[in-house]
Amino acid sequence: MKKNLLTTIISFLLFTSIAFCATLTVTNSGFSFSPSTLTINSGDSVNFILGASHNADEVSQSTWTANGTTNLAGGFLTPFGGGLVLPANLQVGTHWYVCQNHAGSGMKAIITVNPSSGITGDNNQKLLPSVYPNPSTGQFILNNSTASNNCQIEIYDVLGKHILNQNIVSEKQLIDLSNQANGVYFIKIKFDASTITKRIIIQNDK
Known about the structure:
Layout: H1 2-17, E1 23-29, E2 32-34, E3 37-41, E4 45-49, E5 57-59, H2 61-65, E6 82-85, E7 93-98, E8 108-114, H3 123-126, E9 130-132, E10 139-143, E11 151-157, E12 162-168, E13 172-176, E14 183-191, E15 194-202
């Protein structure tokens, strides 16, 4: 049983980790995507966590402007409830997308993909919040190295179920998920004007 769980986790991570640098999250608030405008770097992925009646289909700019729903040939699309869009479908440029059910109500948004800077060891990267140990038995430390007083987290399981909201009030704060089942979870970290998403694994041998 434990071996099967570990195999599942490894397979999931291999699938979702190929060829991208970061995973950003888009959710919905009613009939709106949040954020409605997202800027990412080449190599990043976007995870859509949406209500069951919403999807995200890439369309042409003219279709987007007309609140249409005709999918762009070769563009990304997600099932209802959301899904992960990988870098292969997020080429440099502007991606216009809509909810197929609610485009007529103006449920649409934009993703802008910038070329990757190719810079490694950037000092700003060192300031991003980090989570460790990972995997853990359910207790994680969030290192808020930005020293931001405006840091919040949201945690979801792989099915998009909301698990936890928490304000981060110290530089190193405990996140306790020891009551959750083994598996992969996503932490959406909001700090200052930025949002990043990290994957964590609960692996409890008990």
